[in-house]
Amino acid sequence: MSGNTFGNLFAVTNFGESHGPAIGCVIDGCPPGLSLCEADIQGDLDRRRPGTSRHVTQRNEPDTVEILSGVHEGKTTGTPICLLIKNIDQRSKDYSNILETFRPGHADYTYLHKYGRRDPRGGGRASARLTAPMVAAGAVAKKWLAERHGTVFRGCMTQLGDIAIPFESWAHVPQNPFFAPVADVSALETYMDDLRKAGDSCGARIRVTASGVPVGLGDPLFDKLDADIAFAMMGINAVKGVEIGAGFASVTQRGTTHGDALSPEGFLSNNAGGVLGGISTGQDLEVSIAVKPTSSIATPRQSIDVTGKPVMVATKGRHDPCVGIRATPIAEAMLALVVMEHALQQRAQNANVTVSTPDIMRSRR
Q1: Could you tell me the pTM of the whole model?
Q2: What's the fold here for domain 5-350?
Q3: Domain boundaries, the chain
């Protein structure tokens, strides 16, 4: 199986299975001299980890990260950094009833047909558990980008199922289990309680931003910054759609409003989402993702077994009724990995480029 490495200059190779002894990643290409310890990574893992509220899977994983290599005396050495996260609370017996059947909406069917065998324990490599190593790697990228460029990554939920969530303040996001930018999440809690009782699931919309992004990241045509962002976001489990800036709303906009006008003080809007011609403008990167409903649900659904005979499948075990609830730190991490990759590429290719035009590449706040 290939396709387990993300990035080239800042290459992250993801390993492990949902119910194996451990998961983790190897980061190859982190610049030397970055102060790094487990505490720099653990905070983001704690935001993503399961069992943090009644609205997510009750699998009790501490997701404690260990740095096995690439750091000496608190500084990165420039050699590969291995990050390990042990699996503590696997219950593989929960999947004994699906050994010979396929769960609708899951990767069971495609994995078996591609490889001739599959790991049914929690989905194996197809499990969202494998997003934890990417969050860990993203935390390393965030730290380097913050120290080098002052880049800050933030995310929030903007829709849960059919409930649109208005934006009130970033300050509310860490105060509730939904990463919602609102003070009152009681309606969201009721919605999720009803959904769980019904044995069903729902999707979500997540917004993620990056501020303090240098101007000039990305390349024309096929290595565009926004193309790589879309590629990264679609690599997150259950993501079925990506928007940059105004996204699909661009269809109904006119050219007189969609094009981001400029003034001596900066851009007057950000419909482009911080990217023009595949290259960063210095404005905030604005990305939204659509997360599909969780495939593993208790309600019986029509399917087939490995012989092609019709069956009814109900998934046992501990599952998120909405995987989008824990998707915010994952989306932040993947955006950070993309920006990190392009920042290193820009440093290597165009470190000596100077621009004489005034610095107007900032959004008007």
Answers
A1: 0.92
A2: Chorismate synthase, AroC fold (3.60.150)
A3: 5-350
